[in-house]
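We read letters as residues; the integers encode the fold. Take this protein.
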Amino acid sequence: MPCQGFYPRESGPRWRADRLYHVALEYRYIREHWDEIYALCRLNSLPFNATGELVQNEGVRRVYGFTWQMDAILFWARFEGRWLRGTEFHYPERPENLPSLKSLENRPKFSPRTLR
């Protein structure tokens, strides 16, 4: 069941028809937290598909596209992104029963020595 307030972005030149939901993250935040974002998305099976679009509104932001609304909402909520509707940021309210993502705590750190 779709969540109210989280609408698809509609159409545009760089937007794929199969990825209707777009979330923008601040570029500096992505650079500083890349390892955590990448690991959490892999651990929780969230797609991490950049559209290649940069939005220069409230700073520089990189846009990520999602096929499923819930994947986009979880990504938006966890990384404090901006929901895009058309070319404008949309500020929906956080859903009450939003499931939490698996955390990276208590996960073993990668070490090449353990592969031998």
